[in-house]
Amino acid sequence: MKRLTTIIALFMSITAFAQQNLSFGQGPQPVSPEINSDNTVTFRMAAPDAAKVQITGDFLPSQSIETEYGTFDIQGTVDMVKGADGIWTYTSDVLKPELYIYNMIVDGVKITDPLNVYTIRDINNLFNVFIIGGDRADLYKVNKVEHGTVSKVWYDCPTEGIKRRCTVYTPAGYETSKKKYPVFYLLHGIGGDENAWSELGRAAQILDNLIAQGKAEPMIVVMTNGNISEEAAPGETSKGFTVPTMDLPKTMDGYFENAFPDVIKFVESTYRVKADKAHRAIAGLSMGGFHTLFISINNPDTFDYIGLFSAAVDREQYNGLKTIYENRDQKIDRLFSKNPKLFWIGIGKTDFLYENNTALRGVLDSRKYKYTYLETDGGHIWRNWRIYLSEFVPLLFK
Amino acid sequence: MKRLTTIIALFMSITAFAQQNLSFGQGPQPVSPEINSDNTVTFRMAAPDAAKVQITGDFLPSQSIETEYGTFDIQGTVDMVKGADGIWTYTSDVLKPELYIYNMIVDGVKITDPLNVYTIRDINNLFNVFIIGGDRADLYKVNKVEHGTVSKVWYDCPTEGIKRRCTVYTPAGYETSKKKYPVFYLLHGIGGDENAWSELGRAAQILDNLIAQGKAEPMIVVMTNGNISEEAAPGETSKGFTVPTMDLPKTMDGYFENAFPDVIKFVESTYRVKADKAHRAIAGLSMGGFHTLFISINNPDTFDYIGLFSAAVDREQYNGLKTIYENRDQKIDRLFSKNPKLFWIGIGKTDFLYENNTALRGVLDSRKYKYTYLETDGGHIWRNWRIYLSEFVPLLFK
Predict the structure, then answer these.
(1) Model confidence band, residue A12 (pLDDT cutoffs 50, 70, 90)
(2) A40 with A93: CB under 8 angstroms?
(3) Complete domains list, chain B, with CATH
(4) CB–CB of B314 and A380 under 8 A?
């Protein structure tokens, strides 16, 4: 039988050979990325015929660009160096523990690393990922711990008259424990979807690891799709494999917030949950923080734990369902009159929404409302959102 | 508030611009692939600085290559043509309904289409996908029907002393129906993993669509990982983002088959199932067909429905757990003495395992055992395995 195994593997290898960027018989492929023992990382590309190969990633020093809208820092780009063997290489500085993203650029075309099959889509960009372990980044890795279940589930949203898809994390042991669990609703940013938190957000790994370490309560995490005009993430609806866009109707116009009770109803009629305020949490990043704020203040008896991650918290809304956004500060007063157990704000020092959050904190401070505040380095980036998630989760349901 | 939405979208666009292969401000990006109304498909790549751009895909005429192991047909490759605007294009012939895969090649480097974020990994290759609808290919699309849930679930495998990951499809309505369901175990080929059938296999879409059309019974589908030395798919274990390989120990050595009762036990103690022979089916492709044959004949009272898709069905095993493979034909006799409701074989006319399957059919024919046989064009390819799945599923649990 070993013979047959060999034949099948050989067949698969040969027919797949057109799918490699090295020729059949040329020996083992180079490895990219290779994480070296000193936590530098070597990237390689076999491209003997290319004139120029570059790499761009969030581990490189950022570059400033001037635009008509102001100066922005963008991800840095460096040239890779061609060897006599036609293999281009670049070795990074020593990198701190983190999940990093990158692309390569071959003769001006932005691509994913042909030697690294691990990619994540974020809106309309596809990039490679790698993790330097250690410190907090170990929370982002799959470790030898009990793992929860990650499900893609469709639920009925009668308020909008559509079926919608969400990602549900149930903690290890849920299937067999017969226990009831608290629920944490976790919302993505503009242009994201129900896959965002479980992919770039590493939510399942963070929950698995914090629960295994005894730092977080076992909980269900429900990751919704905040684009209420869409049934599901790009590629997962009857529209087919269309180009993802951030230009979606009804994205921050009140309709998502208005329909949010539908998902709560679905979750509480489908999963074994503790269906009370003390066992419900909600948080979101950027647009999801905006959604979180308005969902929680419009439903002041629903959530005891509220988290705003780099949230857009501007106070006025000029179109859509005005009732959701009007009288924001009075609604905040009403929320705090019900004594939520946690109101949590995280923001990066260079986030373009920093002032926006400072203004909200001013409102809370002027009224002497208690909240937890975390200020981190950097801006409006996933690195911060993973930090905020891993800081917020241990505070829940205690 | 519209203002804030605009600012966030603008910020995301600008900081992401280094991640586009066209420059910021250069106007709308070209679209690739564009499925034209006559079912030709136009591919585009913006690569003004590239010297040569090609496309390779399974919709192109295949090419023969000579190797020391014989002549093999591999996926064809054609040159794209550069326009004055620096955009390279290629328009295909009229394509039949099907799910197609492709890559581009820029100055000799095999890449995914930078304008198409929809990719699927199969073993150590990453390619783009698109679907030409119509006929059977409509089964592969997400349609406006009720959708089942797709879960990534970890279960205990005490026989091997590890936790393992599988993909579980529960049909639409499972969560709330309180009914019990039949279970179909669906196994992948060599080098694949528990994601293979739900990705290139389009199993969730095929099941959703066949159930919605009334052609298949609502059922649970359990997609296991056939590499018993692995806990889960590459990237989903504590090994991290390692390079996927087909060279895995214990792949066809009896250990997977021996441990299979563990997954049945998990499923039947976790989901609402009809736990009897009449409500269990098993099928697999290639190595998974081999696993299917030996699991079913070693457990003749377990499955009433058995499907071999381009299966490796060689009769002898020289290493590993010999007890699983020895006395194959006597075990086949024992299986048929229990009157399974369906024994199904599908094979492509040019499959390198064709003779292997002919030999098995000879054994069945000589004993006058009843089986269903489907012979299709083409070889050892996913197109056939999607066809076999969509033919097999309507025959189950009737």
Answers:
(1) low
(2) yes
(3) 20-133 (2.60.40.10), 140-395 (3.40.50.1820)
(4) no
